[in-house]
Structures are given as C-alpha cells and as structure tokens.
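Okay, any thoughts on this one?
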Amino acid sequence: MACIADLISGLSPKPTFLGLQEVTPGLLRDLSPLLQSMGYRINFQEGVSYGCAIGILTHDSTNSEAVVAQVLETGFHPYRSSQMARGLLWVHARLETIGEVLFTTTHLESYIQGNDGSSARERQILEA
C-alpha cells in the first residue's frame, strides 16, 4: 500500500481520478488513509470481497482550501449477466479547470471453470 501511495505522491500534478480494480476491504482500509491525506475521497464498490474503487482528488493537499474536484454524484451499475458481482463504478464531478466530467472504472467477468468469460465480457462492455 505504501508503494502505491508513494507512487501517487511523487506525481506532479497528481491525477484527479484514480481507477482501481480488485480492491479488497483490507487494501481499502490500509490505502484509504494514505490517499485521504493527499486530498483524495475514495468511493468503493460495497458488499464484495474485492471490487472497484475510485479515488477523486477533491482538495490540494498543499492548500486545503483549493478545491480540485467537486463530487456531484456517484454510483455503481451491476452488470445483469455477472456471476461475480462485477459492474461499472462511476463518479460525476465538476472540475475547476474544465467543468463537469464522468469518470468510470470497471472490472469485467473473469475465467470461470469451463468458461473463459470472453462472451460475458463482450456483453458487459456493451452494457457499460
């Protein structure tokens, strides 16, 4: 977790959005305070053993009054055909520099015994 935080903290400018997949509750618990200390708000796919997360840079950590992104709305769209609780995690935000944006991240279906998941991934990406 510290390596991920160190990588992000070394970037200039910091990315406004971070799209993460295969985030476990333990990883989220350890990584969230590090990202929050840099000004990120974390949204996570709830109720899963691992899922998607989005980090949104809401404040400049060097100037706590400087708003980078204002979160307007967040959500999760589960894929209808998923057998693995997969879906699309999204955030609708207003950026000081360019206006409103929609940022998403997803984790598509994986291999299941006897099924490589490729047809499910195709359906899911079209659904997204």
